[in-house]
Amino acid sequence: MAETINMPKLGFDMAEGTLVRWVKQVGENINKGDVLAEIETDKATVEVESPAGGVVLQLIVNQGDVVPVNAPIAVVGVAGEVVSEQSSVSSKKVDVVSPSKVESQKSADEKPAPQTQVTPAAVPSTVSTPQASSIVHGQSPEIKASPLAKKIARDNNINLAQLQGTGPGGRVVRKDVELVISDKSSVSSKQSTRPITNYQLQGTPDDETVQLTKLRQAIARRMTESKTSVPHFYVSHEYNMGAVMAMRKQVNEYLPDNEKLSVNDFIVKAVALALREFPNLNATFAGDKVVRHGAVNVGVAVAVTGGLLTVVNKNTDQMPLRQISADVKQKVARARDGKVKPDDIEGSTFSISNLGMYDVENFIAIVNPPEAAILAVGSARQVPVVENGEIKVGWRMKATVSVDHRVSDGAEAAQFMQSLAKYLETPALMLV
Amino acid sequence: MAKITMREAISQALMEEMDRDPAVFIMGEEVGVWGGTYAVTKGFYDKYGADRVKDTPIAENAIVGAAIGAAMVGQRPIAELMTINFAFSAMDYIVNQAPKLHYMFGGQFTVPLVIRAVGGGGRQLGATHSQTPDAIFAHFPGLKVVSPGTPEDAKGLLKSAIRSNDPILFIEHATMYQVRGEVPEGEYLIPIGKSKVQRAGKDLTIVTYCKGLELSMKAADELSKEGIEAEIVDLRTLRPLDMEPVLESFKKTNRAIVVEEGWKSYGVGSEIVSRMYEEAFDYIDAPILRVAQKEVPLPYNRALEQAALPQVPDIIAAAKEVLR
User: Fold this and answer.
1) Catalytic residue among B8, B129, B173, B214, which?
2) Which residues make up the CATH 4.10.320.10 domain(s) of chain A?
3) Is B254 in Cβ contact with A174 (below 8 Å)?
4) A69, A94, A347, B48: least buried by Cβ within 10 Å?
5) Residue A36 C-alpha from the chain's centroid
6) B311-321 pLDDT tens trace
7) All domains of chain B, ordered by start, with CATH?
8) B282, A173: Cβ pair inside 8 Å?
9) Can you say whether the dihedral through the CA atoms of B53, B59, B62, B64 is positive or negative?
C-alpha cells in the first residue's frame, strides 16, 4: 500500500527545507530506514530515511525545490501499484503500472513525453539511473575517489572536494591525497627556514572568487539575522580551573583512551547545572513573551569543513559526565564526517563555543538564534596567580557569555557566570 | 643448487616417492612402456615394473575410478591424465566421488590420490585439447588443486601431494616441461596451500600461478626497465587458497592485476578480485584488472591461438592501466 513521505520537520524553527538530492530514483527498491533523499535545512544537509519499504513509485518534487514542512515529497509502495496525483491509498489495481505515468510525472516540469513513446520495453532503462548506484558513501556523491584515497582523506581530515584527481576520469587516488598531506606538512617547515635575503617578488596571485557552500550561506544568513536583530551584551569571567584539571587527571587515569574526559565535557556539564538555576538564560525570545525551555539541551559548536555546526547534548543537566562526553564525541565525529543526523543538531537551548584548543585567551560569540545566550570559552592555561599575597602557578580560563538583552540583563548574566564558577571551581558538585 | 627442467623435477619427485613408499604406484595412458606422453615417466617401467607403472586403456573414468578404489584400500595411486581435457570424461569420479568419500562415510575412508593432469594451450592441439579449466575443479570443496609454476615448486609440491591423505588434482602445463629452474639439493617438501612472493616489488601486485607466472616474470622484467617494479605473488595452490601474501602485497602496492591462462568469466581472477574487495576494500586505489584468455574456444591456427592466449604485452598493458 502506497505511503506518502512528507518533508520532515527537523527543528521547532524549521519552516521549509530544500530537497538537495534524490538518493533513490523512481523504480528503485527501498528498505525502511534507507536514505531516500538529502535535504538542507537552515543548519545543515541531512539525510531523510524512508519510513516504509517497497519501491519508489513517485518523486513529487524536483532536486533544488524548496518544500514547506509536511508537504509530500515522494511515494513509496509496492511495484506496480498505481499512484494518483499524490498517493491513492486505496488503489489495489496491479495490472497497469504506471511506468508511463510515473515517468511522465517525474519529468512533469520538463518536456512531457508523449504517452505513446513509453513502451514497456523502455521501462527498465528508465527506472534505474546509473547515478543512483554510485553515490552511497564517501564524503560527497559527485567526487570520484578510490576507496584508499577516501580512507586516507578520512584519516587525515581532508575534504576530497578540494582535491584535483589525477586518476582516470579525474578519480582522486592515493597520491593526490598524499600530495596535499605532504604540502601541509612541508609548508610550515619551509616557511620558517626560508632565508629573508633571497626574497624576490614572484608576482601577485589574482583574486579568487569562491562560491559559498550551502552551509556557508546558512551561517551568513543566520549570523546576520542574529547580529542585526538581537541586541547583544557580554559578560566575561575568569575561572580557576585547578580543581577541574586535577579531577580530570584523576578520573582519566581509570578511563580507556577513547573515553577520557575533556575539559570541555566539564564545562558542558557545569553550564547545564548553572542554567538550571537561571532558566531565563535557557530560553527563546518570542515577541511579547519569553519561552523558558523545560529541557536543558547544551549545544557544542564544532568546526567542520567550510563552516561550523552545533551538535546537541540533550538533558545535559541530568546526564552523567561520562555519558555527556561519549554522546558529544560521537556527534562531533559524525559532524566532521559529514554524516550528521537531524537529531544531532536540533533542539539546543544554549550553546558553547570553545576555542580552547587553539590557545585563545578570550573571545566573544554571536548568539545562536533562537537561543538567548551563548558562552565563548578560551584556553585553560597555567598563569601566575596571587594567592594569600604570594605568587603561585595556577590554572585559569576565561569565558564570555553573550546574551540577548531582550530576555535578560547584565546582573543576571553575571550571577550566571558566578554560578558557573561554583561548579567549575568545586567540580565535585557536578557529581552529586 | 642444480638447474633442472620442470620435467626432471616432476620425474624426480615421482621416483623419490616411489623409492620411499612401496604403496605409491602410477597408472595412466602411455605411462609405462612408452614412458609418458611428455616423457615424465621415462625409465620408470624398467625400474619399477608393470605392477607399479600401469598402462591403462583409453578410459579416464576407469583410470580415476580404479585409482580411487586403490586409494581407499591403502595404496597411494598417482593417476595420470594425458590432458586435463580428458578429465571431463572422469568428472563424476574427480569431483563427485574422490572429494566426498571421506566426508560421506564418516571418516572411515581416506582417498590419498594424486591425479596428475596436463593443461594449457599454445601447442596447436585444437579447441578440445588446449583448455585451462582449473577454476572448475577448484570450485569443489574436498578436492585440493595444485598448479606449480617453477621446477622447485613442482617437485616439492608433488612430493607433498603424494604424501597427503586427501585427493589432489596436480595440474602441469603442456608448454612448461622445458622450463628450467634451480632446485634444492636433496629431499625437500613444499606445503600445499601456501602462496609465495616470487618477485619483490613496490608499484603493483601481480597475482598469478602456473603459466601465468612464467609470463608475468617476463612482463615484470620489461616493466622494470621503465621503472615499474611489480611484485609477483604465485598462488601455487588454488584450493585451499592462501590469500595472505596476496593481501599483504596489495596493502603495500594498492594496485593489482590477476593473470591466468583460463577464461576470464567465472575464473580464478574473479575469485581473487572478489576476495580483495571483501578483505582489502580500503586499500584499493584503482580497479583491479584481470588478464586472461579471450572468450572463445581456442583456435587451432597458430597466429589466432597466440592472439587468444594471454601474452606478455597484455600483462604489461594491464599493469600500466592500473597504474594510470
Assistant:
1) B129
2) 137-179
3) yes
4) A94
5) 19
6) 999 999 999 99
7) 2-183 (3.40.50.970), 196-322 (3.40.50.920)
8) no
9) positive
